[in-house]
Amino acid sequence: MAPGTNAARTRRSRISPDREAQLFGLVLEQLREVGYETFSVEAVAARARMSKATIYRQWGAKPDLVIAAVRSLGKLQAHIDTGTLIGDLKAYVDRFPGSTVLDREMNRAMAQAIHRDPRLMAAFREHFVKPGLLALEALLTRSIARGELATDCKAIPYVKNMLLGALGGEDFFGDTFDTAFLHGYVDHVIAPALGLPPSVSPVRASS
């Protein structure tokens, strides 16, 4: 056990899980309001009625506090199996509009922050990007296994980029992409690229 570990655990035990969750909520709230550059540990401490020294001692400087708050959201889970690839892809994009894990304001704040701090980038990739990509890979692999998608389909490596283009285009174009738009994107952009016919039947996500 590394020196100082017991002392660190003692310090952490002074803050209850509820108090910690409240603090992280305030951190995320301020990120949404002012962005990463203007984010202030002092302002969060004042809102939380917690001393700045306690926050620094517990979590470190601003980047460390933001990373801890982001991790508190949990990893994005996207277990999907509707029985067809098109259904799976539609269920996959259904997880994004109005997401309770990362809303639009948080996406903007994090997009700004992760390009300024490599540790934030690593935390964001680990807790949000990686689980999403693993879920996407799983549904594509399952589609190949059941003979729905050709193994040598040249478009497979580009599906994640196509999805990123749709999901990341709202701020760039100033649009709001609802479920109908994203389903149409799957039907008329991704499906043809994969050599699949569009499907307009209702789909259901399983979780």
Helix-strand layout with pairing:
Layout (H helix, E strand, L loop, with lengths): L4 H9 L3 H22 L2 H8 L3 H8 L2 H11 L12 H10 L9 H11 L3 H28 L13 H9 L1 H5 L5 H15 L14
Describe the structure.
This protein has helices at residues 5-13, 17-38, 41-48, 52-59, 62-72, 85-94, 104-114, 118-145, 159-167, 169-173, 179-193. It is elongated. By secondary structure, it is mainly alpha-helical. It is built from eleven helices and no strands. The protein has two domains: 5-72, Tetracycline Repressor, domain 2 (Orthogonal Bundle), CATH 1.10.357.10; 85-193, Tetracycline Repressor, domain 2 (Orthogonal Bundle). Helix 5 (62-72) packs parallel to helix 8 (118-145).
Features:
11 helices, 207 residues, Tetracycline Repressor, domain 2, disordered N terminus, single chain, disordered C terminus, mainly alpha
Number of helices: 11
Calculate Rg over CA atoms. 21 Å
Distance between the termini: 39 Å
Average pLDDT confidence is: 79
* Number of DSSP strand runs: 0
Order of helices and strands: HHHHHHHHHHH
* Major sheet description: none
**Unreliable segments (pLDDT under 50, ≥5 consecutive)?**
1-13, 97-101, 201-207
CATH class of the largest domain: Mainly Alpha
SS content category: mainly alpha
**CATH topology value of the largest domain:** Tetracycline Repressor, domain 2
Structurally, the number of domains stands at: 2
Principal-axis shape equals elongated
| Amount of beta strand | under 5%
**Residues in helix, %:** 55-70%
Question: What's the architecture of the largest domain, going by CATH?
Answer: Orthogonal Bundle
